[in-house]
Structures are given as structure tokens and as C-alpha cells.
Write a structure and sequence with these properties.
The chain is built from 15 helices and 2 strands. The radius of gyration is 22 Å and the shape is globular. It starts with a helix and ends with a helix. The mean pLDDT is about 90.
Length: about 350
């Protein structure tokens, strides 16, 4: 019975996501037709632009990589019933952690990269400790704390960059250049091996959530915290670990991004990847494997919007319209709810009379 219901929910969720994407793209197409003087050129650039050259195609994977990490981070925390927005600060601080190892230590190629990425995960995990502790100990809302923590961690990162990592030979506020031994190699075009790491992490998160004891405890605590407590699950432990693990994944994403896409650390403010991760998690319906597809789709939209912005009269902000429509439709519980109920009743073998009563 449980397997049947899971299959029903999977089918409905997948259909909901696909319909959401279709409706969003239709709305954006209509918007382009209304605002553009040459709509066909803009539409062609938006939909076909990412496939016109190998470099443009590689941008899809490059743009999908960071938001896949933050999407997975948010997924773990949402599964625990926590609305933590700390993935933005964890992502940024993770980038600083990777930079500390990359520019200050000398190691063999490969080992140097792994050490830097481990440091990124540790730095990111540290960001999750404070909101997790305050929620577990004093029941302080993790959303408020995590949002404030983002600004704190970015400020601390800027302090570390200015006084310990900065390249004093240039006027710009950037770190010393990354040595080749620490850089993540490219696959093709601008796409780097970090995308493969992100896919491996997505598979790990799926196995962790659905095949491990702690993952089971996280899902139960998120769906019904009171039931979890009465079942003997240590909900305080779940609250802390889910946020620390989620922020560690976001921090790892920050390390992957700086070592794969940049020659030196040059961020000066919020990247926005943490908030984009929330969009990915919502579109993916908190399914780690769907997060891969959601991130790729977002990468495709961003690549297309960038090309359209450069080659037509439609602004890049059109991507915000797509995101807003998708979030509204995916979050709308009434959307396809009757079909979900009908399939559930059919799979359960309940008669219409019993269902109506």
C-alpha cells in the first residue's frame, strides 16, 4: 500500500513540475511577444541560443552546478521541517574556506583540490551550527537567524579576504590567484568537473534521506514532529544535524564554484545562489534526484535569458518572471489535487461511496 501511494505521489509531482514548466514558458513567450519589437528574434535567442555553440551549451552545466548544491542543501533542511535560508551565507563562507587552503597551502594536484573542498564543507557546516543550536535550545525561528547570519558570514568573509587572502599587487579586492594544483578541471567549454561532483552529492543525499536511519528520522520529524518525539526520535539532534549537513553541502558548493569557475576569489557581496537553491528545491518537490533536472532547467533558462539580453531588446529580468510563476504553481496545493485524490482512491481500492463519505 505504501509503495502504491509513493508511486502516485511521484507521478503527480512529476506531472505537476512538467505542467508548471510548460505554463511558465508559455507565459514568458506571451510576455516577450508583448514587449519586444522583434519578438521572434528574442524568442529564438531565449529557447535556441544555448544550443547554438558548444560554449553556450556548456554554460547550462556551469550555471546549474552552484544552484544544484544549494538546492540540495535546502532540500535536506526542508525535509526536516526547517525553513533555513542560511545556504547563501554557507555558500559564500565555503568559498572563503576553499580559498584559504588553495592559496596558503602547497599540495599535489588532486589532493590540493580535495583538501580545499573539505575545508569549504567544514566552513559551510559552521554556518549552520548557530541557527540550529538556537532553534533546538531556545526554539528561536531559524528563518530569522539564518537570514541575519548570511550578512554576518559575508562580512566575516570579507574581513578574511582583506587581511589574509588579498592579492596586494592589484587594486581590485580579490584573493591571490589559485594555483593549478587546486583548480577544478574543465570538462568542456566553461563546464567543469564540479557538475559531476554535484550529481554525486545529489545521489548521496537521496540515499541518505531514503536509505539511512538519520534520513528516516529527518523525514519523520519534518512531516510530524510531535509523532517523531513520541516515537523516540531525538528531534533536537535532527534539527541540529539537518541544518549542519545542509549548510555543509552549500559550503561545498561555494568551494566548487570558486575553484571551478574563477581564477581567484572575487566575490564582494551575496551571490544569490542560496536563494536560487530554494527555487530549485521547490521545483524539485524536495526530491534530490529531481534537483538535478531542476538545476539543469534553471541553468538553461539563465543561459537563454543572458543570450536574449545580449542579442535582443528583452531584459535579463524576464527570468524572474519564470521563477515567480513556477514557485506559485508548484507551491499551490490545489493544483492537481483532485487528480492526486482520484489516483490515491483508485490505488487504495476505495469505492466512490466510501471516498465521498
Amino acid at each position: 500500500m505504501g509503495d502504491k501511494l509513493r508511486k502516485v505521489n511521484l507521478l503527480v509531482d512529476l506531472t505537476k513540475v512538467l505542467l508548471t514548466i510548460f505554463i511558465s514558458l508559455v507565459c514568458v513567450t506571451l510576455l516577450i511577444l508583448l514587449v519586444s519589437k522583434d519578438p521572434m528574434k528574442a524568442i529564438s535567442a531565449f529557447y535556441l541560443g544555448p544550443f547554438t555553440t558548444l560554449r553556450r551549451f556548456s554554460q547550462i552545466f556551469q550555471l546549474a552546478t552552484p544552484i544544484m548544491f544549494t538546492g540540495l542543501a535546502v532540500t535536506i533542511m526542508l525535509k526536516a521541517g526547517l525553513f533555513n535560508m542560511g545556504s547563501e551565507g554557507a555558500f559564500f563562507f565555503g568559498g572563503i574556506g576553499a580559498t584559504c587552503i588553495a592559496v596558503n597551502m602547497s599540495m599535489a594536484p588532486g589532493i590540493h583540490t580535495i583538501a580545499a573542498l573539505l575545508a569549504a564543507a567544514v566552513f559551510g557546516g559552521l554556518v549552520g551550527i548557530i541557527p540550529a543550536f538556537l532553534r533546538a535550545k531556545y526554539d528561536i525561528n531559524e528563518l530569522v537567524v539564518s537570514i541575519m547570519m548570511n550578512y554576518v558570514m559575508i562580512s566575516i568573509s570579507m574581513f578574511i579576504l582583506n587581511y589574509y587572502l588579498r592579492d596586494m599587487s592589484v587594486s581590485a579586492r580579490i584573493s591571490k590567484p589559485f594555483p593549478e594544483s587546486a583548480v577544478i578541471p574543465r570538462i568542456f567549454g566553461t563546464a567543469h568537473f564540479g557538475f559531476v561532483i554535484a550529481v554525486v552529492v545529489a545521489i548521496f543525499v537521496y540515499v541518505f534521506l531514503y536509505r539511512s536511519k538519520l534520513g528516516y528520522e529527518i523525514r519523520i520529524s519534518g512531516s510530524n514532529g510531535l509523532f517523531a518525539s513520541y516515537s523516540g526520535i531525538k528531534t533536537l539532534k535532527v534539527i541540529v544535524l539537518s541544518q549542519v549537513i545542509g549548510c555543509a553541502i552549500a559550503g561545498l558548493g561555494g568551494g566548487v564554484e570558486v575553484l571551478g569557475s574563477y581564477k581567484a576569489f572575487s566575490w564582494e557581496g551575496a551571490t544569490g545562489y542560496g536563494f536560487d537553491g530554494m527555487v530549485v528545491a521547490i521545483i524539485a518537490r524536495q526530491n534530490p534526484l529531481f534537483a538535478i533536472l531542476a538545476a539543469l532547467f534553471m541553468g538553461y533558462l539563465r543561459a537563454g535569458a543572458d543570450i536574449m539580453n545580449r542579442t535582443s531588446d528583452v531584459a535579463l529580468e524576464v527570468i524572474s518572471v519564470v521563477q515567480a510563476i513556477m514557485i506559485v504553481l508548484v507551491a499551490a496545493e490545489a493544483f492537481l489535487s483532485k487528480w492526486r485524490h482520484k489516483l490515491t482512491v483508485k490505488k487504495a481500492g476505495i469505492t466512490k461511496e466510501a471516498s465521498a463519505s
